[in-house]
Amino acid sequence: MGDEQDRNKDVVRTHFAALSRGDADAFADTHDPYGLNHAPAPFDLSDWPPEGRPFGPAEARETLAWLRAGSPDLQVAIEDLIAEGDQVVAWIRMTGTMTGSRGPVPASGRPVDFRHAQRFRLRDGRIVEHWAVRDDLRAMIQAGVVTPPGRQWAELSENPNG
User: Fold this and answer.
1) The domain that contains 121 carries what CATH number?
2) Of the candidate ranges 65-74, 101-110, 121-130, the one whose mean pLDDT is the lowest
3) What's the CA gap between 139 and 147, in Å, rounded?
């Protein structure tokens, strides 16, 4: 693996370590001032421009504050990290307790434990683009915001013809 890919992986490690510590300055420092985000938050049904939305240091600080407002004990563990060219993909596990509200999600006091796949494009040691595929449904069920279908739905899926 090349030096650039190793450096990029280190930036992503720093990004998630700062999120786990709640260190807004270190988290923001991993972001390029002209960075873009391509990953809407849960329940964000607004139109996102194809080029993404701004995700520089100021927006990174807002994201960290939003995430940690819902789960002040939020921890991120990197389970896998893959680099290719100027991009890094991280498979992460997020854990915490929903003791605060996060947007439309009220505090429940319940623990959450879920995973994300996050992709970053980096330039000059900073994140310039971010994408994510998140298991938000699992987190919402664990937080008590969404109720999974009951037994009748499970029975129907096992025998769809009646």
Assistant:
1) 3.10.450.50
2) 101-110
3) 11
